[in-house]
């Protein structure tokens, strides 16, 4: 299994996703600020993977702490929570995982500090294990929606690399492939960071899943040719009404799928749902550096003098989403995740 | 004025568009096979510019010819027509310009060969001059459709670089800008060859037109935010019923514009219309090398083992086109270009 985030001995190990597909490099981390930088710089990305990584970031913060009292340790942990929370604003799994680690810390305040640190490691590992289990459950629920000889279009990477392993949308594809149902996966390259071309295509090659990479702009043509049976993507945050923030370009695919009468599915664990937000227009959308759009891998493409708008995510209204696949089952509209 | 195609002394001079925006390089051509290669490799691109370039390619073929009889010269010209016609299949201006040069040759068969060659140069120059005049007329007709403080979204490059100068869709923007109507141009980067980021943004910088470059996938978000008043693109071939082939990604924009209630305009000279084709599904769509999608600015992005689908154009059904702006005026649906 592809394990983009794992604990090994006394350190967190991440696959460096900025180097894929050219190089398969792992990096070890023993301090939380390095982990925050890894999240910020996309060494690790994907809402569930960010959540799991942040949980281990808190483990490292506790282990780095020289505090001799619970209050001292808690202060160090809170500082790390603040630092890790400031890395990326859109994916809610990050905040969910940090809150879970804070809760774990507070719930075990009476333990000796070494035992508390061990308990935090156990909790982070549980976040990881539960994520993989949730993905497998999503895969099973989602595969039931996939027809035989399906041509599936996906965007960005919501595969094993975006999670603790197996994948959300990628898990649905993986499970359907295991059942012999997948004729072809259309892989949107996903500008500007190319997670589709670099990561999803790499996973497909690794797993022998039949696929073709397309420029994002070609998705509409492929739909018009009748060569897409369903679209499935992941999510970075789902509002209580089902509005879904995901990688920039997802919303366009949902509009195009509706225009062509193609089902459009979102696959995400419950940790991606933000019941506190009534609708998607309240989801904060990260804007990333213009250099991502002005060039790639160090090569400039647009004039340096050209202003750029580079939102990393967009919001797909619930009305365009055929169903949301979760680990608890398949949700159909009208969505209500407010409780 | 930006002149991507021009005749100078005894040679054809092209701006090498593959080097923009980093380098402004001109290249001289004295033989038609080099011109064919320049078209194939996108040194020159854009339907009208390809047509003008091919016309001068025929001038070079005639000048290269060592024939001493009209029939000998015609045979050499026909070979060049065949070679130039084989470069790119979708833009009809190419075939239109070559046919016009063939007709000119046949119409002047009684001239001494040197005079005939001079007449061919005169004809190619007329193709060029008429293209610029048509663009200026399109600009005037199109600018009348542009509201004050307009935010205009465009795709690929249909500017001066795509024509003999001034531009089709780019000409509409240029004319509206000259009238003080343009608040902002949203420039789609236009994967895989990035004509938007590289060429349209370069033209905007040169002319001081306010603009912002976006990844193609961000166009839907910008529309949803209410920040696009109209979309205008060029065309590579327009069928008799108004169905329009243009750069891959245009069709998606037309669907998105319709979804958001935004007018979608096409600007193209009559030489882009193919009255012989009843509908767009008959337009041949060029598929280009997978390396365009597997890499970016010379860097490999997708795994070498990943198959790719790389159509260079798509077809927008006439029903999604608010109006077609030509040098003769603005055409509204139902379109009928069969005569």
Topology:
Two copies of one chain form a homodimer.
Chain A: E1 5-8, E2 11-15, E3 26-29, H1 32-40, H2 47-64, H3 70-85, H4 92-107, H5 113-143, E4 150-154, H6 169-178, E5 182-188, H7 195-207, E6 211-214, H8 219-224, E7 230-233, E8 237-239, E9 244-247, H9 250-259, E10 264-267, E11 273-274, H10 291-294, E12 295-296, E13 299-300, E14 313-316, E15 323-326, E16 329-331
Parallel strand pairs in A: 4-5, 4-7, 5-6, 7-10, 8-11, 10-15
Antiparallel strand pairs in A: 1-2, 2-3, 8-9, 9-14, 12-13, 15-16
Write a structural description.
The structure is a homodimer of 339-residue chains. By secondary structure, the first copy, chain A, is α/β, with parallel strands linked by helices. Chain A folds into 2 domains: 5-136, Four Helix Bundle (Hemerythrin (Met), subunit A) (Up-down Bundle), CATH 1.20.120; 140-331, Rossmann fold. Chain A is built from 10 helices and 16 strands. In chain A, the strands form 4 sheets. In chain A, strands 6-5-4-7-10-15-16 form a 7-stranded mixed beta sheet. In chain A, strands 11-8-9-14 form a 4-stranded mixed beta sheet, with helices on one face. In chain A, strands 1-2-3 form a 3-stranded antiparallel beta sheet, with helices on one face. In chain A, β15 and β16 (329-331) form a beta hairpin. The model of chain A has no long low-confidence stretch (mean pLDDT 97). At the A-B interface, α7, β6, α8, α9 and β12 of A face α7, β6, α8, α9 and β13 of B.
């Amino acid at each position: 299994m592809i394990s983009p985030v794992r604990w090994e001995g006394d350190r967190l190990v991440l696959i460096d996703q900025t180097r894929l597909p050219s190089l398969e490099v792992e990096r070890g981390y023993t301090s939380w600020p390095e982990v925050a930088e890894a999240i910020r710089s996309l060494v690790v990305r994907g809402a569930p993977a960010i959540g799991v990584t942040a949980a281990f970031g808190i483990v490292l913060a506790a282990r780095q702490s020289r505090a001799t009292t619970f209050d001292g340790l808690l202060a160090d942990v809170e500082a790390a929570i603040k630092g890790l929370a400031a890395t990326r604003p859109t994916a809610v799994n990050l905040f969910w995982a940090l809150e879970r680690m804070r809760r774990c810390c507070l719930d075990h305040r009476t333990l000796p500090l070494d035992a508390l640190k061990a308990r935090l490691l156990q909790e982070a590992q549980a976040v990881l294990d539960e994520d993989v289990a949730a993905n497998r459950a999503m895969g099973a629920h989602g595969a039931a929606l996939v027809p035989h000889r399906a041509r599936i279009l996906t965007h960005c990477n919501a595969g094993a690399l975006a999670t603790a392993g197996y994948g959300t949308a990628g898990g649905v594809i993986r499970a359907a492939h295991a059942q012999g149902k997948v004729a072809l996966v259309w892989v949107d390259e996903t500008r500007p960071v190319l997670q589709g071309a670099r990561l999803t295509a790499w996973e497909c090659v690794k797993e022998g899943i039949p696929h073709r990479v397309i420029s994002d702009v070609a998705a509409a043509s492929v739909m018009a040719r009748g060569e897409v049976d369903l679209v499935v993507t992941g999510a970075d945050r789902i509002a209580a009404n089902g509005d879904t923030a995901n990688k920039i370009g997802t919303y366009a695919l949902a509009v195009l799928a509706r225009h062509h009468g193609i089902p459009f599915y979102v696959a995400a664990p419950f940790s991606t749902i933000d019941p506190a937000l009534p609708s998607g227009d309240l989801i904060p959308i990260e804007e990333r550096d213009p250099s991502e759009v002005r060039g790639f891998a160090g090569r400039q493409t647009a004039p340096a003098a050209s202003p750029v708008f580079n939102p990393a995510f967009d919001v797909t209204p619930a009305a365009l989403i055929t169903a949301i696949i979760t680990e608890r089952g398949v949700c159909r509209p009208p969505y209500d995740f407010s409780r």
